[in-house]
Each structure stands twice: as C-alpha cells, then as structure tokens.
Specification:
The complex is a heterodimer of chains A (136) and B (205). Chain A is an all-alpha fold. Chain A contains 4 helices and 2 strands; from the N terminus they run H-H-E-E-H-H. Chain A is elongated. In chain B, helix 1 packs antiparallel against helix 2. The chains are: A mainly alpha (136), B mainly alpha (205).
Chain lengths: 136, 205
C-alpha cells in the first residue's frame, strides 16, 4: 500500500516535471534564429503553393523543371518496380522464344534424318497405317 | 476540408516546434530543416482535403515517417561508408560526431549573457541532451503526448502501435528525463519555477 502511494507520488512528480520541461522547450522553440525562421517560412510558402497546384498534368516546378503528370514521375519506387516487371516479362518472352526455336530445330532435324520423305507425316492415311501396324 | 488559410495557420503554429523536435532526433539542423520541409509538402499535397483537427496527428505521422526514411538512408550510407573506409587510413576526421558537441555548439553560446540566462541555457542544454539520449520511440511518445498535447489514441495512431505501448513509452521517457534532471539537481529548481503558460496533458490515463 505504502509502495503504491510512493509510486503514484513519483508519477505525479514526473508528470509535473514533464510539463515544466515542455514549457521550457516551447520557450526555446520560439527563439530559433532568424535564418532558420526564414527557411521555415520559405518551406511553408512552398507547401502552400503545392496545395494550390493546378490539376492539369503538366506543370513547371520551382527549379524550372517540367513536371509531367504532377509528381508521379518522381515516385522512383513505382517506376523501378514497373521497370523490373517489364524486364522480367522481356526475359520470359526471350526464354520462351529460344525454347520454341530449339524444339522446331529438333523436329526439322528428325524429319530430315528420317528414311521416309517429310510429306508422308502430313498424310492422314499414314498415321492410321502406322498405328495398325504397330498394334500387329 | 481545410482552407488554405487554415493550413497556413497550422503550419505557422507547428513549424518551429517541429524543427526542434526533428533536430533533437536527427542531431543536424540542415537535415532537420529538410525533413520538416518534406513533411509540410506531403501534408499540403496529400492531406490538404482533410479536416483541420486531423492535421496535428497527420503531420506528426508524416514527420516521424520522414525521419525513419532518413535513418534508413543513413544506415545504408553508413554501411557503404564503413565498407569503403576500411580501405582508407583512419585519421582524426573519421571520428563520429558527438551529439553533445552539436548541442553545446548550438545552445551554449552564452557570451555576454546575464547569469540567469546562462543558467537557463545550461538547463535547456541538459534537457536537450536528455531528450537526444532517449530511445527514438520514447522520444516520439513524449513529443506527441506532452509537447504536442495529443491524446493516447491519436499518439497510438501516429506511432502505429497500441495505446498500452504509448503509455509505457511515455512513462519511461518521463522517468528517464526526470532521473537525468534529478542527477544534476535541476528537478526541484524546475518544479519551483513559475509556468509562463501551461500546455499540459489531459488527465485521461
């Protein structure tokens, strides 16, 4: 019981001390030097100018750089992700293309090396004859 | 939706405190200015259509996230720097900067100041050092709860944690600050000091 009361007193004292600290910090914050104050003011103006930015896609930023589609181009993470996806897709297509080419080459080589003429494989009757003979 | 005038008023009201809070966290005035500017820009660009009463919480959240981004970049840069510097010869210039040096350089310039002001500046320097020594989460909780006068729920949303965690962080931060001030015999002196204006915390805990 006594310990609880002591703890509560310490907590209350700490809270009062924290309020004193905050008062001092507030006083200190109000006395930042003029250079910082002017830079903060400039930043605020910039932010407010951004708030009033037109909704059209093309604008000219503070540095005179043309900004297309507002600031979406500045979202490098999104661009990087899209770029990586695009590269992945290209790599997949290239691999598929190579695999198909290899299969076609193997097919051609088999047909050319065969004793039978290549035209016979497109004949429907040959397929039937081949299956019947294989069963026998 | 907030008007341009309301947003401007909010930014005027918060900009200096935000700068100081950021400076305590990142220990560099230029970086702190950049971070505050980024946070202002993001608030104005993305959340200007929100009601004014949501601004403090939104701004604090943006500010803390921007600071985290800075620390992340700093961490990556430090990895590269330490990798590259292992090839270089170590000299005096390679030493890490001491936060106490930054604070003493910015707050203890007391030439030609009266004794009382000197005392206050020294007290402030001690408070600032104690604040910079706090772990990040504790400092964030202290700043939002006490300095920004946000309630536990708002602080929890801004910090992205539970209300219980906010209370724990706050209590630990206040205890650490009090212990630091007691160590230098400043606690009683501060408590005896008349408050010029009170911006306390609601008695909801």
């Amino acid at each position: 019981m006594k310990i609880n009361t002591e703890n509560q007193q310490t907590e209350l004292r700490d809270q009062a001390l924290a309020k004193c600290v905050v008062t001092l910090l507030n006083e200190q914050a109000m006395t930042v030097d003029s250079r910082i104050a002017s830079q903060l003011s400039y930043s605020r103006q910039q932010a407010l100018a951004n708030m009033a930015m037109p909704s059209s896609g093309i604008t000219i930023s503070q540095n005179g750089v043309l900004r297309l589609f507002r600031s979406y181009w500045h979202q490098y993470r999104l661009l990087l992700t899209l770029l990586m996806c695009g590269l992945g897709l290209l790599a997949l297509l290239a691999m598929q293309n190579m695999a198909n080419q290899e299969e076609a080459e193997q097919g051609d080589a088999y047909l050319l090396a065969s004793d039978l003429p290549p035209e016979i494989y497109s004949n429907e009757g040959f397929g039937t004859w081949l299956s019947e003979n294989t069963q026998q | 939706m907030a008007t341009r005038h309301e947003l401007s008023d909010f930014l005027v009201n918060i900009e200096r405190r935000a700068f100081k809070q950021t400076a305590y966290a990142v220990r560099d005035e230029h970086v702190a200015l950049d971070i505050v500017q980024d946070a202002m820009m993001k608030l104005a660009e993305k959340y200007a259509d929100r009601p004014v009463n949501e601004f403090p919480m939104l701004f604090q959240r943006i500010l803390q996230n921007t600071m985290r981004d800075f620390w992340r970049r700093q961490k990556i840069r430090n990895i590269w720097t330490s990798l590259l510097s292992s090839f270089a010869v170590k000299g005096d210039d390679g030493e890490e900067s001491d936060p106490l040096e930054f604070l003493s350089a910015t707050t203890l310039d007391v030439r030609d100041e009266p004794e009382a002001q000197l005392e206050q500046r020294q007290t402030m320097a001690l408070i600032e050092i104690a604040l910079t020594k706090l772990p990040n989460r504790q400092r964030e909780a202290f700043v939002m709860r006490y300095w920004e006068d946000m309630d536990v729920a708002e602080t929890a949303i801004a910090m992205g944690c539970s209300q219980g965690s906010v209370k724990t962080h706050c209590s630990r931060a206040v205890r650490a600050l009090a212990a630091s001030l007691e160590k230098h015999g400043l606690a009683e002196q501060l408590l005896a000091r008349p408050l010029s204006f009170e911006k306390g915390v609601d008695d909801e805990d």
